[in-house]
Amino acid sequence: MNQVDFPALALRSERFPKTIADQTRKVYDRVSFIYPASTFFFHSKAHKCVIEDAGIADGSRVLEVATGSGEMFRRLVEKNPRGQTIGVDISPNMAAKTQRQVRREFPGTGTHCQAVDARQLPFRDESFDSVVCCYLLELLGQDDVVAVLEEFHRVLRHRGRLALVLIGQNTEMFNRAYRVAGSLIPAFWGRQVEQSVPALIKDLDFRVQSDRILRQGFYPSRVLVAQK
Ligand SMILES: C[S@@+](CC[C@H](N)C(=O)[O-])C[C@H]1O[C@@H](n2cnc3c(N)ncnc32)[C@H](O)[C@@H]1O
Questions:
Q1: Number of domains in the chain
Q2: In a domain, 145, yes or no
Q3: Closest residue by Cα to residue 63 from 115, 97, 111, 117
């Protein structure tokens, strides 16, 4: 048995510091005013794929974890105007920005965004039809990647759907650049985990329903949708 056959083991044994949540919160708080530009250039194509693939029904209960400055969150609210769309982010500035914009753009919808750490979601078991999480797992230590996926499983109802977006690991040049960026500012960049995640979600009995790899400029993403 080697780690190539069992990518989940590779993630667990990889040497990566524990989640550095305080630093991550501070750094994302500072960049919240400029973050929409980064989302526009690198994340918007993957966000559109989530909307196409995740099967979000109007009138459902949707949770987005790690909303950032709210670009995906607004797409979710637009898709679910008669339902309840809840967002969380560890950065109070990101959560407040998302909340302000969505209230302005979609007055009267059942939306709420608050500052919460994904490792302990303040929601009842099986209380959401869909959970969406884009580009968060890279920022967590290995134990917390598993803990957060368990939280997603806990809050999703039976047959609910999880949509995950990860930074793709399919381009060697990009991977090298990412390793350098991650070693310089780990709280902002983290490290790539994409290849380990499918095995982790299968361990939790999620069934993968769609799996897409795409690029926006030089930036690769993987969009996974799985059913509980
Ligand atoms: C790379 S950004 C992605 C933002 C957004 N999801 C997107 O697709 O553009 C990561 C976000 O995760 C948030 N974050 C980091 N650690 C978190 C945690 N433990 N719990 C909740 N949010 C967290 C950061 O504050 C930041 O807004």
A1: 1
A2: yes
A3: 111
For atom 5 of ligand 1, the residue with the nearest CA is: 68
What sign for the dihedral angle of Cα 138, 121, 19, 186? positive
The values of phi and psi at residue 224, to 5°, are: -115, 130
Residue tagged 């039809």 (tokens): 129
Centroid of ligand 1 to alpha carbon of 25 (angstroms):
9
155, 131 Cβ separation under 8 angstroms = yes
- Please, which pLDDT band fits residue 17 given cuts at 50, 70 and 90? low
With a 6 A CB cut-off, is 146 part of the ligand 1 pocket? Answer: no
Q: Ligand 1, closest atom to CA 188? A: 1
Q: In what order do the strands lie in the sheet with 84-89?
A: 110-115, 84-89, 61-65, 128-134, 156-167, 219-227, 207-216
* 70-90 pLDDT tens trace: 999 999 999 999 999 999 999
Q: State the residue range of the domain holding 131.
A: 17-227
Report if residue 155 sits inside a domain: yes
Pocket test for ligand 1, best of 89, 93, 117, 188 (most atoms within 8 A of CB): 89
Residue 136, domain member (yes or no):
yes
Is the CB of 187 inside a 6 Å radius of any atom of ligand 1? no
pTM (two decimals): 0.93
How far, in Å, CA of 53 to CA of 58, rounded?
Answer: 15
**Which CATH number characterizes residue 72's domain?**
3.40.50.150
Domain annotation covers residue 100? yes
